[in-house]
Amino acid sequence: MQETLRGDIEFRNVTFKYPEREKIVLEKLCFGIDGQKIALVGHSGSGKSTIVQLLMRFYDPVEGQILINGRDIK
């Protein structure tokens, strides 16, 4: 039986820093998207691209979980 995709995304206490840098970029980020279309809006350097890169698994969080449809993307 094939699972129905809902498109739910959840960031649970996600902390991230780029491997080559000391500064934490995201700290304990929490939000959920329930199958909606959204826009990430903010100033340059505010973490918009980092959130997408984490979601696409170009990087893994230092702490926390990213879930799609209730499943950890790891």
Protein described:
The protein is mostly beta strands and 74 residues long. The chain has a single domain, classed as P-loop containing nucleotide triphosphate hydrolases (Rossmann fold, 3-Layer(aba) Sandwich), CATH 3.40.50. Helix content is 11%, strand content 35%. It has one helix and four strands; from the N terminus they run ββαββ. It has a four-stranded antiparallel beta sheet, with helices on one face. Strand 3 and strand 4 form a beta hairpin. It is globular and about 45 Å long. It starts with 7 loop residues before the first strand and ends with a strand. The mean pLDDT is 93.
Q: List the total number of helices.
A: 1
**Computed structural class:** mainly beta
Q: Quick check: average pLDDT?
A: 93
How many structural domains can be distinguished in the coordinates?
1
Q: State the oligomer.
A: single chain
Strand ordering within the main sheet = 2-1-3-4
**Could you tell me how far the N terminus lies from the C terminus, measured between alpha carbons in angstroms?**
23 Å
- Estimate percent helicity: 10-25%
Profile the largest sheet: 4 strands, antiparallel
Percent in strands: 35-45%
